[in-house]
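Quick one, probably user error.
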């Protein structure tokens, strides 16, 4: 039974339309420096998202180890986003996770609708598309599949794709390995602030409470990519976000006043520092503004895993060690849920403000 009222972008894209419905046309001010994403990705001049090689993150040679950790720390402070290579998760596993996700999205829309989420009743896990919010009525050019993948005891297996048959196994192994990588990254970021190694991990909920939520983003080909966005500009609310993609460009970062298109680095994982770590570090680590653009020629798919603190249990605020007489706390204390609400509220206010 199809209960969802949200239009699937995939159905719209495959209907052969040459112009996109007005709900998908973004306001002019959001469409700066769009260009052709394939051309943009090839450009070598200007700032580039850093690539961080994690091979030596646990090296026994303290000098070698420090050099690696220092680079990660610098990238987190300067950009807040990076391509991780030699991160310890095998190419084969990443390939298979991606194949499984692709196989799910290759099912007919009617099949996927059996997994449809129901945002109105709070069932946010499953297959979905963005619902227009009341204020702007704007939509994004993507469909997605969203579900909690770690800790294992908090998963709702009834919503996980049953096709392909290996989806559950592969996604579970991948989630577990990412969780290990998150611990490693958090320990380097802790040491980078002069904190004890396990501190940030503890502050975001530890093994029991830090939630890993996977969102597979499916961006169909778009007949008017210069007018639409796959994902509107935002910063991630998470502590960390890890992203795989199918090597089709689309991620853009707002760095030093300009939109930069991320290159597709083979076998890398794109990692974002999210708002949670930005807050805890009192702005020393950056949560960068980014967006997803679409194109006419190729379907883009990305697999984002958001590592998030529990919604209510933890008050997020700059850690005392990051605050001093000369560095006042830049963020008021808020739970994760309050932080999300605050962002929504601010966005609504901005939209209601008279156009400049
Ligand atoms: Fe994001």
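Nope, works fine. Designed sequence:
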């Amino acid at each position: 039974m199809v209960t969802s009222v949200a239009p699937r972008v995939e159905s719209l894209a495959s209907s052969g339309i040459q112009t996109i419905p007005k709900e998908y046309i973004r306001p002019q001010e959001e469409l700066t420096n769009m260009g052709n994403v394939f051309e943009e990705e090839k450009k070598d001049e200007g700032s580039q998202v850093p690539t961080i090689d994690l091979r030596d993150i646990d090296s026994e040679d303290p000098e070698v180890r420090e050099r690696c950790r220092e680079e990660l720390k610098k990238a987190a402070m300067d950009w807040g986003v990076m391509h991780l290579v030699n991160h310890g998760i095998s190419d084969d596993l990443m390939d298979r996770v991606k194949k499984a996700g692709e196989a799910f999205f290759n099912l007919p829309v009617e099949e996927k609708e059996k997994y449809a989420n129901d945002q109105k009743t709070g069932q946010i896990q499953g297959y979905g598309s963005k619902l227009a919010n009341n204020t702007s009525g704007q939509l994004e050019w993507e469909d997605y599949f969203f579900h909690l993948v770690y800790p294992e005891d908090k998963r709702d297996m009834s919503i996980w794709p049953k096709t392909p048959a290996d989806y559950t196994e592969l996604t579970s192994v991948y989630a577990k390995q990412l969780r290990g990588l998150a611990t490693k990254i958090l320990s380097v970021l802790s040491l980078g602030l002069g904190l004890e190694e396990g501190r940030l991990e503890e502050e975001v909920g530890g093994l029991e409470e830090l939630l890993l939520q996977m969102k597979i983003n499916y961006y169909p080909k778009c007949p008017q990519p210069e007018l639409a966005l796959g994902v509107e500009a935002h910063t991630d609310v998470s502590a960390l976000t890890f992203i795989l993609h199918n090597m089709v460009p689309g991620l853009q970062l707002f760095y030093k006043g300009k939109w930069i298109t991320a290159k597709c680095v083979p076998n890398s994982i794109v990692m974002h520092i999210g708002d949670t770590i930005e807050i805890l570090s009192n702005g020393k680590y950056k949560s960068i503004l980014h967006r997803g653009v679409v194109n006419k020629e190729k379907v883009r798919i990305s697999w984002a895993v958001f590592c998030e603190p529990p919604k209510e249990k933890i008050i997020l605020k700059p850690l005392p060690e990051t605050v001093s007489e000369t560095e006042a706390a830049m963020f008021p204390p808020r739970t994760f849920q309050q932080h999300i609400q605050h962002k929504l509220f601010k966005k609504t206010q901005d939209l209601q403000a008279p156009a400049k």
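The mean pLDDT is 94.
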